[in-house]
Structure formats: structure tokens, C-alpha cells
Amino acid sequence: MAAPAHRSGQLEIRRHPERTVRDRAAIRAALDRSYVCHVGFVWSAKPWVIPSMYARDGERLLLHGSPLSRMMRTLADGIDVCVTVTRLNGVVLARSAFNHSLNYESVVVVGRARAVLDDAAKMLAMQKLVEHVVPGRWDEVRPPSAKELATTLVLELPLDRVSMKARHGPPKDTASDRATGTWGGELPLLQMYEQPLPDALVSADARVPPSVRALVSAGRNGRGS
Q: pTM of the predicted model, to two decimals?
């Protein structure tokens, strides 16, 4: 998808460059709409791509995991890493098999991660990770203990070298294919929250917290799906 970075930090998209999104606000919003990234790196002369939860905090991505994790240990050594975040928004059904496609948005971040060592900074990063998934949840639960914080490795990856690519809209059919009368169009894909399922150990009088109710009442994913 992307070639080496220009001096500006924007990664060059060579395939379908017309789908490039350069607006930084749009890139940040795309990162905020998703929950899962894929982390690509080389370890022991072999490529690895690992799915992971993440959060954006300003101009950096945050990752967290166990210090025993091969991925986290390897990234903490300062090796090159490629993090991708992709969101599928729909299926594009063309009149020809060749022109079928997907509507999506995809962000690629390239760089080197570094460990967050200060305890206060780590605690703030943990808060960002929780709040990214369920806004308001941090204030409803117990924060990490000193032991839990010590057994968590937090990494930050600056958004210095980044690109975004997106496709939207109907199929790009030729005039001859459109003239066949075959149906073509889009099949939008929405992410929606269903009703929350309480843990079996939750007391009968415990109410669903405001953070969860807010997401459910929004119907769709509150990140703009």
C-alpha cells in the first residue's frame, strides 16, 4: 500500500492514489472509529502480524500487553513496525466480476515504538485505552493496582509516518456493463451494539452503567459507523 515516507511524514500511496486521504483530522477520526489494529514486524527472520487493541492519544498510538509477550518485547527493542487499522464499510456489487470491490478506510502507521516507563504516564495510557473502547468506563471501575501496572508493558508509536486510503460510493462499471441491465450497487455494513449481557455474578439490583447505556442507546457504533 505504501512506499517509504517523504520528508513530510506522509506515506506515498501508489495503487489507486486517488483514494489517498491526507487530512490529518480525517486520519485521526478513522483511528478513533476502530478498536483493533494489526501489528506487523520481523522476529527471528520471520514476518509476524498480530491483532491487538489500541488507542490514539493525540499524535501517538498506544499498545499494551504483558512484558512476557513476544510482540511487546520485540517492539520495545525499537525495531521497525507497521501498524494497520482497517474498517469495512460495505460491499460493492458491480455488473462484472472484475469490478466488485469493498468500501473501506485503512490507516497505516510506520515507525518505531518506545516503552512508556513513568508510572503516571502508564496510568494515563491505560485510561486512554479503556476510554477508547467505552467512553466513561474508567470512572466506573477500579483503576489498575501498582502490581497490575508493573506487570503491564505500554508502548507508544508516534503518528509521524502515516497514510490513509479510503474507498466509498458505487461500483465503477463500464458503459457496456451498465447497459446489460444487471443489478449493481452497494451493500452497506454497519456495526451495532446489542443489549448488554450481565455477568452471572452481578447482583440482581445492579444497574447497567451509564457508559454502557450510552453506547447501546446510540444503536450503532458510536464511532460513526
A: 0.86
